[in-house]
Specification:
The complex is a heterodimer of chains A (263) and B (347). By secondary structure, chain A is an alpha/beta fold. Helices cover 33% and strands 28% of the residues of chain A. In chain A, helix 4 (117-129) crosses helix 5. Classes of the chains: A alpha/beta (263), B mainly alpha (347).
Amino acid sequence: MTGTPAMIGVRDLSVRLGDREVLTGVDATVRRGEWLAIIGPNGAGKSTLLKAVMGVLAHRGQVDLDGRSAATLKPRQRARLIAYAPQTPAVPPDMTVFDYALLGRTPYIPYLGRESRHDREVTASVLDRLDLTAFATRRAGELSGGERQRVVLARALAQQAPVLLLDEPTTALDLGHQQQVLELVDRLRRADGLTVVTTLHDLTLAGQYADTLLLLARGRAVACGEPDKVLTEPLVGEHFDAHVMIEPGPGGRPVVHLVRGGP
Amino acid sequence: MRSAETAAGPSRARPLWVTGALGALALSMVAGLLGGAADISPWQVVVQAADWLPFVTADSGLSPVEQGLLYELRLPRVLVAAVVGGLLAIAGAGYQGVFRNPLADPYLLGAAAGAGLMTTVAIVLLPQLAASIPVAAFAGAVGGVFLAYALGNTAGRSGGTSTLVLAGVAVTSFLTAIQTFVQQFKVEELQRIYAWILGDVGGGWEQFWLVLPYAAVSAVLLLLHGRMLDVLSVGDEEAVSLGVRAARVRFTVLLAASLATAAAVAVSGLIGFVGIVVPHLVRRLAGGSYRSVLPLSLIVGAAFLVLADLAARTVIAPAELPIGVVTMFVGAPFFVAVLRMTRRTAT
């Protein structure tokens, strides 16, 4: 394809949880600076794919990060390459926003050591970028849903990793906050050249923001490509078991409508 | 440049809180030295305490008998209460971090009951060997926690906060039953066992020196892991994504907290609820980061138990209450309050 080298390379990835094969032979490539959205019906293995790439799930197959085999990386090395925000992050309610964001610096701090001045400065500047400076000394338990999501993003950014894995970053957010978070991710990605992989259940949102969509169904990658190649009525209709109408929206990107009286 | 320092304040125990806690500890220790029947003024106690320090001589005007009373009876008692209270509180904070559960407590997790069982076994089987008690208590504490944790896991991962506590209750009852069974074999040791179970910090200097090395090792280990416990508090998957081997951290902290519990239980018997009351109080006041919760729990726990011991000695003077009764009297209602609060925030 293009000349940009692959940041993430996944080959023949399979994951078994208990006696269920959740992912089967998935291949995917994410270029540096690309935004890949993983879409698919419930239980298709979207989150599992993220976790396998991050290395918290046992898997078969090959995962390469920045040209190196992920299996050979030490936990701290991997953490400097990939930052991850789970679907429902546990934010300790008594911890201050600053302390929480500071956790992102963990891969740079010695095991029993303490953070350096540099770590604190990086954290402070990330909070500043996300307009969270005023919240620095607030307890995380006092935040609203949208603020919380931004604070989780701040922790991931403090990690200063070139890859950002976000599992459903817009769940439980209203329309305006969904847009705010995704715009923020997009801006940061362009400014810092980040590679972004998100799972998104809202197909229109995924089509609006991502460069590439990967459609998973029953643990297999059934389609991958630009939004208008993946978000087609036959593909979505078949794999989501839904009756949809898809038309070009803003910027020529597809918009997905549900049609009443579906299957 | 905008100052990063102002924002960086809360991540460590703030000097103000530490100073305040140390002040409270000092006051409670003076009160502990004072308490009781003999007629001594607070100032004399302070002067006398200064005199005990190396290279300091001060005349408190106390008679040799009074000095002896203070030095041989009250001082070791206050020190043992401080060490034991600090250990139980910091161990409670450590367990709470490892299990991500504000209700985890050495007493409720089965650690204390395990230590109690093994100590009883040691008293019954090796009555002459006082040194075997800490070792036995340690094995028992680790075994008790392991049992409660395993049981809590099999009972359901999704059970959350209360599953582990329920498992701890079950393990505690079971181990206590075995302990009662064992102690009936040695009826002549019954008084010694009972005195131990109800909690006692009046064992003198010997008791103090016995607990000190274990206390030092476990407290230092726990204090070093404050930042790691903060990382664990976001959950295992995220901890791993931050490059931390969560299982290894958990194991080390668990071991250190169990050593602290075992040391405390071995010298002073079963003193409940300190490990839950103190860290919770500290968290409310000084924030939830373990980097401040651990050191402050150590200090405040020490002050708390010194005061509890003072209450135990004075409430029904000249008779004495077992110290465990005092902490349970204060702790049980507190536990209910914490339970209600965590329920509310969890939903």
